[in-house]
Prior knowledge:
By secondary structure, the protein is mainly alpha-helical. The chain has 2 domains: 1-32 and 46-65, no CATH class; 78-147. The protein has 4 helices and 2 strands; from the N terminus they run ββαααα. It has a two-stranded antiparallel sheet with strand order 1-2. Helix 1 packs parallel to helix 2 and helix 3 runs antiparallel to helix 4 (124-146). The protein is rod-shaped and about 80 Å long.
Amino acid sequence: MTESPGGSIGGSSDARSRSAAASSAGARSGRRRRRVEGGRKHRHEVKVTPEEEARLLMLAEAAKVSVPRLLIESALAGGAESSAGRREAVAELFSAGRLLASIANNVNQIARVANSTMEVPVETDATLAAVRRVAERVEEAVDALSV
C-alpha cells in the first residue's frame, strides 16, 4: 500500500477510479446480489481497451448496475449463444459465397452456349433454381446477423 498525494492509502489511482466507478454503479442499482452459501469462489479478470472501458462504464451507468454485474447479466442473458450464432451465420455466408462463385461459373457457361447456339441449355432451370436456393441461404444468414 502506498500513500497517494491526496493523503489516502491504497493502490494506483487507476484502480481506485475503477473501484469507485464500480462502487457508485453498484450503489445506483439499489440492491446487492444475494449471498451465496460458501461465497463466490470463482473470479474472472477481463482486460479491456480504454474505449471498451468507456463503453462498459456508459452501459453500466445506463443500466444502473456495476460493470461486473453488467458483464454477468449480459453473458447469462444469451450473449454467448448469440455470439456463437453470429459465428455460424458468418460461416454460412462464406459457404454461400463459395457456392455462388461456382453457380456464377455455371451461369456464364450457360450464357456462352445460349449466345453461340441461340438455344437455351436444358440445365438452365436447375441452375436458376440453385441460384434461388443460395439467395435464400444468404438472406437467412444476413437475418441471423442482424438479430
